Each structure stands twice: as structure tokens, then as C-alpha cells.
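Anyone opening a protein record will find just a pair of labelled lines. A complete record is shown below as an example.
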Amino acid sequence: MVSDPHPPLHEYHQTGHLLVGVIASHSLIIPSPLEFTAKPPPALFEELRFCTGNSIKTLKQLYELALNCINQTRSKVFTPGDRCSVSSVPKNYQHILALVFAVKEINENPRILPNISLGFHIYDSYFTARWTYYVTMLLISTPERFVPNYKCDRQNNLIAVIGGLDADISRYVAMILNFYKIPQLIYGPAPVMNDKTPGLSFYQMAPNEDVQNAGILALLLLFRWTWIGLVVMDNDNGERLVQTVFPMFSQSGICFAFIEKIPQYTFVNEINNMLHQGDKIVDKIMKSKANVVVVYGESYIMAMVAWSAFFLEPEHDTKKTRSKVWILTAQGELTAFVFQRSWDLQIFNGVICFAFHSNDLPAFHQFVTSRNPSDTRGDGFIMDFWENAFGCVFTNRFLSEIKGDICTGEEKLESLQAAIFEMSMTGHSYSIYNAIYAVAHALHTMSSSRFKQRRMVDSQGWTLETHHLWQARPLSLCSEICQPGSSKRVKEGEPFCCYDCIPCPEGKISDQMDVNECYKCIDKKYPNRKGDSCIPKEISFLSYEETLGISLAFIAASFSLITALVLGIFIKHHNTPIVKANNRDLTYALLISLLLCFLSALLFIGHPVKVTCLLRQTAFGIIFSVAVSCVLAKTTTVVLAFMATRPGSSMRKWVGKRLAYSIVFFCSLIQASICVLWLANSAPYPDVDTHTLVEEMILECNEGSVTMFYCVLGYMGFLATVSFTVAFLARKLPDSFNEAKFITFSMLVFCSVWLTFIPAYMSSKGKYMVAVEVFSILGSSAGLLGCIFSPKCFIILLRPELNKRKKLMRKKN
């Protein structure tokens, strides 16, 4: 028994009772030239002990070079000296999505294969024979154990294989599957059969090429395009097409100005030499008088033509390129490699492309739109596809310095040009979609035939009991089957068939029977109580639509209105002694800042966005600092005024508005500087917290720097403490209306609120943390408003006889 030492770079696996294998064509391995300076060593063989217990010799490691190359690509860091690199065709990722979407529909449809789930295992062929043979052998081997021609257990319930995209890839797959009698459904053109590959069987989902040839001929005759060029691939399939098309077109009066063969991509073929040959071909096409070019070839042929026409020969006149009419077969649709993402594909402005039949499926469009690299479990293609399609990188995939744009996962697939990725289902994708349904309906017909009790045997010889036999118990088990919501735990000292079923631990689930381990839900979901499925988390934030949010907003609006009324009263009675006492301008500034404090609480309610996140803490900190600075200035004014009344006091020069204004300005300036420093270095931003609460996703404003947040609070607390101390010392100064004692009470309330805020804030979670801060803002602001201004309003409105200068001045006893 051996494990595969070089697992494929790209694969996508989903478990199920029955598995469908898929050979996709998504990426190309591009090797650098190799120089041989010495004779290679003799072939190496190694002894392996298989699960049968027999010790035999393995085959020569034919895939060693390709495996090493793929291993190297895992680092994602390439230099000019690298031996290989990987370049993907992002448009082909839709083929994978079409298969996943079809399997999802079938599994959710109770009328097809009830109580039987379909799974799949997708591997990338990398467009090469070497890798196609290798991954095909992986499909028919025991999972996670590459033992060719052996299956050590019954977990690999493979029933069919879908692939490949190009004719040669399909032929390589068929050569392996033919020995095992596993059905193969291909979604590209039929491979060429020769003496070496007689009698290979497969089911072709795409229409026959003869119909397409007749359509191209009819198009040429319709527009009287009788002088044309022909481009094919330099392989068996291209040779067959020339032998078929040439006499057919010639008999109808079509003449060929040239017939060019583009070299086929292979792993050992150097990419630069191959493209250099393609460049010569394109140069000949451009110089020809034939303005119509018919292109037959593999799926990537137009990407190679684009390379030669646009990149390798910059001296080409692009106007000549645009003047050509390109006629493409359905197989050679307009695609682009990742490095051609930003190229001007207008050079193929006159392309007429035949297409396989497709269908517009709205559900598929929604499925593709919802695809996101952050919540797609098991998909080994999506990360590379996302990086290549959008020209960015994910930070968690690199250990070295990152160069280029960072992938957020929020990029929109709709923004990609059609040559890179299409949102609507293409012909190839629709063929894959139909292939999956063909397999499902065939299995359903077998299982629902009139012989309900007969057994269904797959192509590997593994026996599957139908639902009726399953319910009958013709079963022989050491342990009961573990239901979803539990996992297996092997019993010590007993065979692996004997196990206990244990419930999934908290935070994990299992949605299949007899699983070895439970797994965690993605960040945006949480386990249900049974532990057998994941439930989407609810979005949580302090909203205007809930009782708590609307209550706090109502309180903030009410206090804002009260503050505005108090300000109006003071402006109306601005010439009265009680308003003029202790600097009337400071009183106005304090009332305005309190009004803004109440309004700033509204920034904390509602959906967090970038603007509100930037303003929440900074606006609150600056406005509150202005308010407390005004209180400190008023307190200082009271103290200095009484100290200046002493004979010969030197404090008289400090009494006046200039000192008060200076205190407000400089104290507020320090807080503003802290906030500017905060915004410049680590500004707050909208964020989603998926970990704090199990059943909710919290939309919040990430403070960016917790240290700066507490610096703002700390400075505000420092100002409040100083103001409280000064007011406390001045509370017994003689005066019928000594404002210092009211300021003492107000600052006592202020400090009490914010001292209780910190433990309450730290012990709260989600929207309740925001609610605690809003309550603290409203409570401390209301304390200042009530303690300082309610006595003054009482005298102004209800006891106007006390609002006289002689009543406000009283000498010491």
C-alpha cells in the first residue's frame, strides 16, 4: 500500500454514494528548455507492497518529470531560472461549475435517484498525455492511494467518467477506461481512431463534426468566399480534417490559398519554439490575399494565434489583422490565456464562431454569481482561477513578499471580458450539464426497473444495493451505520469495520453517513442542533428597524431637541446676568457641542459603511473634548475670578475671555491631533465578524487600532478628571449662584458613566457593544446638560426675580 507522493495541483472532490469522474482542461504546464550535459541514469524501479500483501515490481515512473514540475508550481514563486510554470485558461473554469451545478440540482431533486447522492472527483489534464494518463489512473485507484490496477477498499464507487475537452485528451482517457469497461462521456470532438487504438468506446455529447463542416461550406458559398485559408492543428485530428474538408470544399468551388498546421502543445515541447512557429504561420496569413481564414483546432488554438499576431511580432499591421474574417469551429471558441487578459482582442473583430447548442439557465447564472473563493469547500481550482482572472493574489497563499494587487474575494465575475470568462452557459458547459443528467437518468432507470430487488453493479464490479434492499436490512455489518451528525471512532483492538458512532463535537457537522471525521461549517454558516447541516448565519447590527436601535435614536433626537430649546432660551435672554455670568460665549459653545454629542450617537446606529466608520469615534471624541474643554474653561474662569478679587492679586491679568478661549482651543486641538494620527495610520473600516457569535454575522466598524481608540477615551477622561478636580475645589466659593458646584455634579455623573462604560463594553458582544457606547454618550451628555443648565433654566423661566445682578453677588460673612 502506497500513498500518492505527488498529488495533483488542481482537483475538486465531493463525496457521494456514487462518484462521477471528470477530466477537465483548465491549465497548461509550460516548461523551460532543458539542457542535457551527461548521459541519463538507467531507469529506476522500486519495490512496493500492495494491500494484497504481495511484493511486486512497479512500472517505471513515467510521470516523474511532470510531477516534479507540478510540485514546483505549488510555491507560486517563479524566476527566470524556473523549470516550469502554469498558465490557465480561465474560461474553462465554467466547465467545472456546470458539472457542480448539475450534481447539485440532481441531489436536490427528489424525483431523480432518491436516497442516493451523486459525488464527483475532478482532475486537471493540463492538456498533456502524461498528466491525462496519470489522473485517469488516479480516478480508478483507491482514494488517496495511487496503486494502479488495485483497489484496497470499496470507497471508490466510480460509475462514469466525463472528458475530455480536446480530441486527444478524450483518446488518452478512453485508452485507460477501455480496459476497465467504465463508460466515458466526452463533451468535445470525437478522437481519431487508428491501428493502435481500435474499438475505443465513448459517448459523444457534442454534435457530429460533419454537420458543422456542411454549415461552414454553406456560409462560404452564401457570401461567395471562394479564396480562403485553412488553419488546423498539426496532429492526427488535423490531418483527418484536411482529408475530409479539402475534397468536400473543392467540389463546391472553394479554393485554398494556404493550408497551415499549428504545432500542438505538449509537455516536452518548448513553448517559445512552438509559438515561434505559430508566428511564422500568422505572418504568412497576414501576407496572403485570402481575407477569409477557416480555423479548425483545439480549444486553445485562438489564444495561440492571438499570441503570434499581437505579441511576438509587434511590427504586424493590426489593421490587416482586423480585415481578416476568421471562421472558427465550435471547439476553437475565442479564449485567452491569463497573460492575455489585458490584450486588445479587437484584432479578431471579424470572428464568426460556430457554437454547440446551449440553453439559458437563470439558476446557473445565479449559481455562478454566488461563487466566492472564501466559501467553496473542496474546490482546488477556484483560487488559481480567481487570481489569474482578476490579476491579483491571495495573501494567505504566499510566504514571500507579495507583489501586485491583493484579491479580496469580492471581485465581480460579471466584469470579466468574454474571452476570459462568460456568465451564460457555453456550449461545452451545456454538454457537460447534459452528460451528468444522462448518467443520473440512466442510473435512475436501472434502480427503478420492475425488478426492484435486483442489484445494481457499476463498471468497477462494486455491488450497490438499491433502496429497497437497504431498507430490508440481504446487510452484514459489524457496527450500525453512523447517521449524519455523527462520525466513526474505531474500536481499539478490533478490525476497522467495527466502530462506534459518536456525535459531532460542538461547532462541527457531518452531512453524510459513515464519515470518518466531522468538519466545520464555513464562516458564514453554523451547525444546526442535530449537527447534520449548516445554517446560514443571520446578519446582525444595531438597526433603526429594531426596538433597541429606534429607542436609542429617539432618545438622541429628544435630547438634541431639548438642547436646541435651551440654546434658544439662552439666546433670547442673552442680556440677563445669569446668561452673561462665566462667559456667555463659552455657554453657547458648550450647548452647541452638547447638541452635536447627541447627534453623533446616530452615527452608531444603522448599517456600517466607510463614512460612518471613519466618523463614529473621531467625531465623538473631538466633540466631547470640546464640551469638556468648555466646562474646564468655565470652571477655571470661576476660580480665577474669585482669586483676582483679593487685594494685590497677580491673577487679574489672567482674568478674561482670552484664557478661556485658549483652554478650549488647545485642549480640543490635542484630541483632534490624536484623531488625525489615528485616521492616517490605521483608520476604522467596515468589517464582518463571523466568529464572536455562533448564529450571527456581526456587521461592525473595525476600530483599526484599539490603542488609538483607548487613547481618545483616555484623553477625554483626563480632561474630565481635571475639570472635576478644579470644580470640586471651587464648589464653596461665595456666590448666590456658584456654577462650580453644578459643574462638580455634572462631571461626577460624566466620570461615573465612562468608568462603568469600559467593563460593560468589554463584556458585551455584537450590536450590544455599540448600544453600550451609544448609551454612554447619551448618558454623559445628558448629565452635563441637566446638571449645568437645568438650574439656570429654572431661574430664567420660573424665578426671573433672581435673575438680577444684586442677587448673584454676595459677600463673605
Remarks:
- Residues 570 and 579 are 6 Å apart (CA to CA).
- The mean pLDDT is 77.
